[in-house]
Amino acid sequence: MTYRFKSRFSAVLMTVTFLLLNTAQGVRAGTVHILSPSARSYGMGISGVADASDPSNAYYNPSNISFINGIYLSGFYSQLVPDLASDVYTGSLGISGGTRIKLGESLELGLGGSLRYQKLDYGEWTVAGITPEELGTASSSEYTLSYSLACGLIINEVFSAGIGLSVKPTKLNLAPAWGTLEGVANESDEVALDFGILMQAAFPIAEGYTLTGSIGTSFLNNGNDFTFTSSYQTIPMPSAVRYGAGVRLESPRMDDYDDWFGPIITLAGNFDILDHTEEGSEERSDESNYGIEVAILQLIFLRTGYWEYESGNISGSTFGLGFGLEYRNFTGRIDYARVPQAAELARTNKLGIIIGMKF
User: Fold this and answer.
1) Between β-strands 209-222 and 234-235, what pairing exists: parallel, antiparallel or unpaired?
2) For residue 180, what is the DSSP state?
C-alpha cells in the first residue's frame, strides 16, 4: 500500500488514516484485539464466547480453555481490505494446552493455558517532502502477545464451571520518527486484560447421544487508552462485554472405525452479543453474532452464521468450510471462511489451521 503526501506525514493524520482503514471491517482503529484469530468462528458468525470446543476461542473468553485436555497449535491469516490494499493483513500463531487433575471420585480440576502472537500489518506507505522528492518508505503495524490462564471444576462429567484471565501486552507502530511532522515516532505501548466465566452442562439424551449446553460472559480489553506523541493523540482501548450461549449435540461413533473418525454427526450452535463503548461517548452499541456448524465424522465441517453491527455498517451472513482428520489421539483441521465487510466492500477470506494431541 502506498500513500503520497505533499508534506511530511503528521502523527495526527496517521491516526485518522488508520481510523478510516479499519472502518471497513467495523472495528475501531489502533487495536489488534477486535480481529478474531479463528477462521472457524468467522464461519459461525464471529461467535464463540460460550464455545469451549475450540482452543482458539480463548480470544472470545479466556475461560473457554478451562477444560481442554491436550496440546494444540493453531495459525490464522486474512487480508483485511483487499479492495483497498492487498498488503493490509492480520495473522496469528498460537499454542494452547490443558490437563485434568482428579480431586475425588466425581470431581476433577481442569487447568488450561495459551500463548498467542497476533499481528495487524497496515503495509507500506511512501513519505514525500514539500517537493516531489520521496523521503523513503515506511511500514505500520500493531501486534500483541496474549497470555491466557484458566481453571475449572468438572462434576460427574456433567456440570462444569470455569474462569479465565488473559494478559495482552500490545504495541502500535504507526509511523517512524522521520516520517512524522513532529519528528517523534508515532507509537504506543499498553496492556489489555480479559476476564471470563463459563458454565456447561452435558446430558445423555439417548444411547450414545450427548447434548451440552453452555453460557458464558467475558469482559474484554480493559486497560488505558493508547497515547501517541501528544496526550491529545489517543485511541481508546476497545473495551467490551461479550455474553452468549452455545449448544452442542454429538452422536455415537462408528464402532468399527473408532480410531479413525469422531462422532458420526456433531451439531453446534452459538449466539453472542457484544456490548462496547463507542469512541468519544459513553453510549453503548450492540453487535450480534449467530452461528451453526454441522460436522460429519469430524472430517467435513459446514458452517454458516450471521453478523450484525449497526455502528460499523455491517450486516450479513457468513459462510465457512473445514476439512479435518482424527486418528486416535491426534486431530487436525483446515478452516476457511468468507465474511462481509462494511458498505459496498467485497467479502474477505479467512484461513486457519489447527493440529493437536489429546491426552
Assistant:
1) unpaired
2) S
Tell how far CA 220 is from the center of its chain.
11
Residues of the chain with pLDDT under 50: 1-27, 29, 279-282
What contacts 355, CB < 8 A, 6 or more positions away? 72, 73, 74, 330, 331, 332, 333
CA distance 294 to 148: 29
Yes or no: say if 105 and 126 are a contact pair by the CB < 8 Å rule: no
> Residue 19 and residue 233: Cα distance in Å, rounded?
13
CA–CA gap between residue 291 and residue 307 (Å, rounded): 9
SS3 label, residue 136: strand
**What are 55's three cell numbers?**
482452543
The pLDDT assigned to 229 comes to 66
- Domains assigned to the chain: 11-358 (2.40.160.40)
pLDDT at 246: 95
For residues 144 and 31, give the distance between their C-alpha atoms in angstroms, rounded to a whole number: 9
